[in-house]
Amino acid sequence: MFESLTDKLGQAMRNLRGVGRLTEENMAEALSEVRTALIDADVNVAVARGFVERVQAQCAGQEVLKGVTPGQQIVKIIHDELVRLLGEGATALSTARPLKIMLVGLHGSGKTTSTAKLGRLLQKRGYRPLLVACDVQRPAAIDQLEILAGREQLGFYADRASRDVPAIGAAALRGAAGADGPDAILFDTAGRLQIDADLIEEVKQLRARVQPDEVLLVVDGALGQEAVNVARTFHDALQLTGLILTKLDGDARGGAALSIKSVTGVAIKFIGTGERTEDFDTFYPDRLASRILGMGDVVSLVEKAQESIDEREAEKMADALRKADFNLEDFLAQLQQVKKLGSVQNLIGMMPGMSGVKVGDIPEQQMQRTEAIIKSMTLQERRKPDILNGSRRQRIAAGAGVKIVEVNQILKQFQQMQKMMKMMKGGGMKKMMRQMEAMKGKGGFPGM
Q1: Which pick of 124, 229, 367, 436 has the fewest CB atoms within 10 Å?
Q2: CA-CA distance, 110 to 320, in Å (whole number)?
Q3: Which residues fall within 8 angstroms of residue 41, CB to CB, at 6 or more apart?
């Protein structure tokens, strides 16, 4: 979402290289580019102007520190101001038990999906969540929430015969009472295509009835400045305690994320970065600021790896490497572990200095093709690739919907990998390095 802003801010920083002192004169053009970049990203004009003025006030007249370039110094100042703009510190949820959370927003913002995503996140934190279906307006909304709850093994409550939303909420609370009941109750409310009196009145009545500890507005990040207006209206009616910003994996300009906290005063607490239930993260302003400036987000990358990678599978792989007994079944397991981390483009964006690298859909397509080829093999063929003769390869290619040359390519490169494993076991590092260079020249192993 922030690729264009990152590129333009990077260009503005490059214009400051080589100067020995930061002055109003040599900063004027660069800060003008920063302001233009922010406005082009759909940041509120007043917010963009105030941001640039604060950066200019801090930069003017500062001596460039020894060993630090002016570009690096101003990046630090801009980073700190971005953190301030996004909302300093990570705002935690209430510690009340049971924790009652009401999710509100417009139709299409992702409320129902976000309800399940938040329930999944709370479950990982030790809660026993219950999802309550309070959207009686949208067809199939109750079914959608029930399916998501079942998929993530979360509690679920609905009353399909009732249209009384406050009564549904109250009944869910009564049913959840008791020592063994859920300790996190999430209310998924109805939305509208636009804010109207009926919508506001319904959520106000539900709030009065269930007395939630948190009222979170789910906002579509692709709405731009309209998202800020939506947040302001809901906040005036309900006194929001936080925001969930969704669809940050899209190609919108991202101005809502940079404006909404400053304009409304309501903190962003969570962000949705994809369609899967695991594509949901606590919002950390400093991490997003680092990504916007092309500095990566190693902490989030490590956390995502810790959450997604199966420890037993990792130990099994380590054992296979030690014994130089790496087969196609092992490789398939690792490929599936990598897919859990999300898109390659998103992972690259978390790596310092890599935010400008565009990979498109090619790595994902290569992984899908490689996975399809290996899955078209029998278990015996995966464990003993040496038995793959011409007729077997022809069958595998037909099953995966690829040409036989692609099957041959994967098997050839897999054999090269096996050779390297054996070299590592035997200590032949020089041979291994030559083998790696050979693989590099041939494009490497698809999907790695």
Answers
A1: 124
A2: 43
A3: 2, 4, 5, 253, 254, 255, 258
CA atoms within 13 A on the CB side of 82: 26
Three-state secondary structure call for residue 380: helix
End-to-end C-alpha distance for the chain, whole angstroms: 25
The b/e string for 404-418 (b: 16+ C-beta within 10 A; e otherwise) is eebbebbbebbeebb
Query: Is-contact 216 127, C-beta < 8 A?
Result: no
Report how far Cα 402 is from the mean position of its chain's Cα atoms. Answer: 32
State the helix-helix crossing angle for 285-292 and 3-14, rounded to 10 degrees: 70
How far apart are the C-alpha atoms of 355 and 357, rounded to whole Å?
Answer: 6
Q: Compute the distance between CA of residue 427 and CA of residue 81 in angstroms, rounded to an integer.
A: 51
Q: Which amino acid is at 58?
A: Q
Spatial separation of the C-alpha atoms in residues 56 and 78, rounded to whole Å = 10
Which tokens in the block code for residue 240? Answer: 């929001």
Give all domains of the chain, ordered by start, each with its CATH number.
Answer: 3-86 (1.20.120.140), 99-294 (3.40.50.300), 307-441 (1.10.260.30)
Per the document, the length of the chain is: 448
pTM for the predicted model, two decimal places = 0.67
241 CB-near residues (< 8 Å, 6+ apart): 94, 213, 214, 215, 216, 266
How far is 141 from 83, CA to CA, in rounded Å? 36
Indicate the helix (H) or strand (E) that contains 101. strand 99-104
**Tens place of pLDDT for every residue, the chain, 448 residues?**
566 777 777 777 766 665 666 666 767 777 888 888 888 887 888 888 998 888 888 776 555 555 556 666 777 788 888 888 888 765 789 999 999 999 999 888 899 999 999 999 999 999 999 999 999 988 799 999 999 999 999 999 999 999 999 999 999 999 888 778 899 999 999 987 778 888 889 999 999 999 999 999 999 877 777 788 888 889 998 999 999 988 877 655 667 777 888 888 888 999 888 888 888 988 888 877 777 776 544 444 545 555 555 566 556 655 655 555 678 887 777 777 766 666 655 655 555 554 555 545 556 678 888 889 999 999 999 888 889 999 999 999 999 999 999 999 888 888 887 777 666 555 544 554 455 455 444 544 444 4
223: which 2 tokens?
């709405």
Whole-angstrom distance, CA of residue 261 vs CA of residue 22: 29
Per-residue burial over 316-352, b if 16 or more Cβ lie within 10 Å, else e, is ebeebeeeeebebbbbbbbbebbbebbbbbbbbbbee
Pairing mode, strands 184-189 and 99-104: parallel
What is the C-alpha separation between 307 and 279, in angstroms, rounded?
12
